[in-house]
Design brief:
The structure is a single chain. By secondary structure, this protein is mostly beta strands. It has one helix at residues 28-39, and strands at 2-8, 13-20, 46-51, 57-60, 77-82. It has a 5-stranded mixed sheet with strand order 2-1-5-3-4, covered by helices on one side. The N and C termini lie far apart (28 Å).
């Protein structure tokens, strides 16, 4: 289960948490599509960042990598930023 939050960097607002199920064998590109569908935006306008230990953030920028290769655990949080 992933916890997805929409983040607006310009206004520094963090949206509500959306719980999603996605297989760790899925790719980063497929995650972006799923997040975009959940937030009802275009997947081209979404950047995903994974929250790791001690609140460190890492941009998921390799679309072909699987979530498992990116180090996803069962309880990871993902922040999806909408690009205007």
């Amino acid at each position: 289960m992933l916890r997805v939050q929409e983040v607006d960097l310009e206004s520094e607002l963090i949206g509500v948490v959306h719980n999603m199920r996605i297989s760790p064998s899925r790719t980063v590109a497929e995650l972006k599509i799923a997040v975009a569908a959940q937030l009802t935006v275009s997947h081209h306008d979404v950047r995903c960042v994974i929250e790791r230990y001690y609140n460190t953030l890492r941009l998921l920028d390799v679309p072909a990598k699987s979530l498992l290769d990116e180090g996803f655990q069962k309880t990871n949080k993902v922040a999806g930023q909408i690009i205007d």
